[in-house]
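P.,

For your records, the input lines for the assembly:
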Amino acid sequence: MNIHEYQAKELFDRFSVPSPKGKVAATTKEAFDAAKWLDVKNLVVKAQVHAGGRGKGTFKNGFKGGVHLVDSPESVRDIAGKMLGETLVTKQTGETGRLVRKVMIAESVTIKKELYLAILMDRATGCPVIIASTEGGMDIEEVAERTPEKILREVIHPLAGLQAYQVRKLCHQLGLTTTARQYGRMLHALYKLFIECDCSMVEINPVVITTDDHVYALDAKFNFDDNALYRHPEIAAMRDLEEEDPREVAAAQHELNYIGLDGNIACLVNGAGLAMATMDIIKHHGGEPANFLDVGGGASKDQVSAAFKIILGDPNVRGIFINIFGGIMDCNIVAEGVVAAARETGLSLPLVVRLEGNNVAAGKATLAASGLNIESADGMDDGAARIVAAVS
Amino acid sequence: MAILIDESTKVLVQGITGAFGARHAKLSLEYGTQIVAGVTPQKGGQLFENAVPIFDTVGDAVKETGATASAIFVPPAFAADAILEAVDAGVDLVVCITEGIPVMDMMRVKSMMTGSKTRLVGPNCPGLVTPGTGKDSHGGCRIGIAPGYIHKRGNVGVVSRSGTLTYEAVWQLTRLGYGQSTCVGIGGDPINGTSHLDVLRMFNEDPETEAIIMIGEIGGTAEVEAARWAREHCKKPIAGFIAGATAPPGRRMGHAGAIVGGEEDTAQAKKAILAECGIAVAETPGIMAKTLLERWGK
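Structure tokens returned:
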């Protein structure tokens, strides 16, 4: 799950991670009031969307830039008016862009130095690891590639937590002197936030040192462990469904795991590994998968029906491939679900079904007896080849 | 022989009275597995299916029945605690089926298990099967949620992160007439107890295992580490498959662990390394068994 920049700031404030003073606004009046409240000369107005590249983005109304530096509450109101209710297109949003519902008004600080800081869960060691670098404000993967010696890694013991010597070591390696104490406090606070909020990643790029020697977290990206959201209702409440693919939201409501892709062959599969492998096998036979869809181990008739409606909601879909290995799940129940859903939705697209496993003969008989135009496949490769042929 | 479990393994089930645990404990009993105890706090003294005694604690269950393996079916919020209880009770093997355990919980469990004699398989896994010699492999040891009847006793070891892909490989083998020594589902979570490499080592040492299928997916470097070890040390033919060639970067593909990270971390890169290490890589998941048999010279 992702959150907005202003929500990240709320978390920073709660855990005492220093960041420039700021407020969120949903109207031009709120933006004006926020700027008055800030009572500083240098202000910044930032469009709130879940996508990077805002500064270089363009609004569909022609206004350029999702981040603007201004010097008065009046100009804040003016700029906010050009962003709110408008659609921002950045290199990460795709052509459709994202509707800006809120803007953040913050104090703009004068930067002397930009650093990079992240904490993430490292699967290889099973421990949290801090990644720090003097090369802030740029693409960290590029830094890692060009100058790997500038990437510092510090593994934290899961039970002992971040130790004082580790903070001293990082400050020393980063060459911090007058700001070391502030940076250290920020690191301890950020580690506490990372652990207590069940984050899988927190990335601050950049951490800035201002001309008057203050250390601030300027822009942050959070990833939370979805498995742990049940114990963080306040974080779960930060979820902005408007920023997510509506098909993925609908799928989640039926406990289906759906991810939309660009192809034209929809697939419906049980099991995450098999669902991935099904996308791969479609590609192998020359097709393009339209989605990842895992209906889980014990899919019910209702879930199969809901899954059908979700994949048919994608206008690019030209054919459907159902790949089910019914180990314990009864293949005939799946077949009945497929037939019911196909009838209910008046399906006219090619449909190939590969069933294997428990009670498979009855399942195939149900498909054959339905009178619907359903092709029954003999194995995964055969199924993939058939659906690719049917849509091309 | 087989690895980790065989027909004489005594198994207890934590969470045996929940719908999911009960269903699969019953299927294991029907398969002929020695399910000797169940554990549900505050339900001690009852019987499961009129035959299996239920205890309040794992410690009691172990003391009274001599169980050496535990299957965990408790809900995600309580699963980490259940694993640690089994470790404390001294079982040799804990198989955690539960899906959706917070990663921080598993991080602490893994750290606390350092130096313990207990092996953890999972979480978020289908479990293990050592097939029996009866009809439809009846009489074997089934811990978890895999369908028993697709197996056949034999000499191929199977290790995988994914449940349904394991079943695909097993079913392909069985239909071609080749049985399995043990099938191990290690689970799809980013932090788990047993790795591909751990299982390859065991298969390599197991006299009954003659050939191996290793199934992996995008995310992490576990398959790569296993392959590099196998190049130097594994005496047995291996076929591999990696799922997720078409997965978009940065998206979690169902399994919490299945997410493409950096450039090295793609299905294509993993497949190339597997091949370099002498593993026969199946082009599609439909031909995993066939690919192994070709490499094996069958």
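Two observations worth noting. The longest strand of chain A covers residues 111-122. Chain A has 13 helices and 19 strands.

Regards
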